[in-house]
Amino acid sequence: MDSSLANAWTNKGAILNRLGRYNEALLALNIASELNPRDETTQNEIGVASYETVKYDDALLAFNNATDINPEYGLAWYNKGETLKSLGSTTEANTAFAKAKDLGYTG
Questions:
Q1: How far apart are CA 49 and CA 58, in angstroms?
Q2: What is the model's pTM?
Q3: How many domains does the chain divide into?
Q4: What is the mean pLDDT of residues 48-53?
Q5: CA 19, 73, 78 angle in degrees (round to 5)?
């Protein structure tokens, strides 16, 4: 695996997310994930793109992957909380928000 190639696809996906081009971002991020499925940043960005396209189940899966890979990734815990809140799982969302805060992520 060429990690620099995976990083390039992740960076492209992240930029496309920031531009609001979420479907294009997902295409790039899926390539990055195929090259390096254990990258928490890639998984988090997949979650962001999925969330923004109202694919909450896919977003939750990606944020779960990110926090499984790196349990100290506060941003992913926060994003997981937002997704759970959107799914109506308030108690689980509050737990995720608390974990993000404990890790120093303040949103």
A1: 9
A2: 0.95
A3: 1
A4: 98
A5: 65
Q: Which domain holds residue 85?
A: 3-102
Q: Cα separation of 106 and 25, whole Å?
A: 25
- HEC assignment per residue over 60-85: HHHHHHHHHHCCCCHHHHHHHHHHHH
- 41 belongs to a structural domain: yes
53-106 confidence digits (pLDDT tens): 999 999 999 999 999 999 999 999 999 999 999 999 999 999 999 999 999 998
Instruction: Quickly list DSSP for the chain.
Output: --HHHHHHHHHHHHHHHHTT-HHHHHHHHHHHHHH-TT-HHHHHHHHHHHHHTT-HHHHHHHHHHHHHH-TT-HHHHHHHHHHHHHTT-HHHHHHHHHHHHHTT---
Residue 77 forms part of a structural domain? yes
* CATH code (residue 12): 1.25.40.10
- The answer to whether position 107 is within a domain reads no
